[in-house]
Amino acid sequence: MNIGITCYPTYGGSGVVATELGKALAERGHSVHFITYAMPMRLSGFMDNVSFHEVEISNYPLFDFPLYTLALASKMVEVARYERLDLLHCHYAIPHATSAYLAKQMLNQPDIKVITTLHGTDITLVGLEPSFLPVMKFSIEQSDGVTAVSRFLKEKTLTNYGIDKDIEVIPNFVDTTRYRRIAADEVLKSCAPHGEKVVIHTSNFRGVKRVQDVIYIFHEIRKKIKSRLLLVGDGPERSQCELLCRELGIQDDVKFLGKQAEIVPILSTGDLFLLPSQSESFGLSALEAMACEVPVISTSVGGLPELQVHGETGYIAEFGDIDRMARYGIDLLSNPSKHKLFAQAARKRALEFEATDIIGMYERYYEKVLSGASVAAA
Q1: What is the pTM of this model?
Q2: Which of 119, 271, 351, 357 has a Cα at 20 to 30 A from 168?
Q3: 296-299 and 272-275 beta bridge pairing
Q4: Cα–Cα separations (whole angstroms), residue 274 to 22, 32, 343, 348
Q5: Do 288 and 242 belong to one domain?
Q6: 136 and 27, same structural domain?
């Protein structure tokens, strides 16, 4: 198949999943074309069967705001026409699904299909804005196929938007041959040189990720357990988080590592992963940690209960319950035998989301949509 993939190329779960999906499809012999405004972060180096097409934005002074939706639609038309695409796969609905609808109308080629994958805040936050809600509903319903990364997200979409469309649940995935615990002595020596326990969090540092809650939880753990906190990623909340660490007097035990292209060595030093999110459609960062044998303490929001097994792979607490999450962390970090069991269970659970299996689900869904099989609501 010739597949066009559009995603946000930044340090977020939807872009990571889209890029890893494209790379895996290319390895299976499909021709994959990434169409976006910048090179996706996880797309580095030459790969056979993979091409990148940059969306160029006009800077004409008449336009106060960049017309990305229209520029993206035009680039989709160009790539679809000259690369003979079979389908356009849009990750994150706004504005990608809207651009794809426009592109399909301009192409006037019914054989080209549009598939939209919903990832989370496009449904639970952005799309509910009154200025976006009608176009969100329209763009999803006009897609030839729609997938969601969790049952939670599927139900939220159907409920919030009254969508008259069947939505296929295809969960996020992890390459467990690459994401596995490895020897990472150099990283450990740098981050925890005196044998401290290592607590990790990775995110885009947006408000819904509650990174300040991570710091408060670690502050309580640190009172009982000699430990270090590694914060991976970057975003709008980072400066406030750095200030909070200084106010709590724990700045020497917290390392802000910024964006990292290769996270396995970092996760391989981890003893505990914290994810106290306010909203989480699936929890890809937690899955990657689990694959590296790191138990997870998370909130009970969104799709996390579909991934986590409370009392086996880690613990689940109510959103905002910092004290309980800290107690869970102290319990795990102070009990080596229990920690080992949880680490093994986390890895075993991650194997259920092995990339090979999930990529196959996407391939079969592509074939279903391309064949014209009904994907409308029953």
Answers
A1: 0.88
A2: 351
A3: parallel
A4: 28, 34, 14, 19
A5: yes
A6: yes
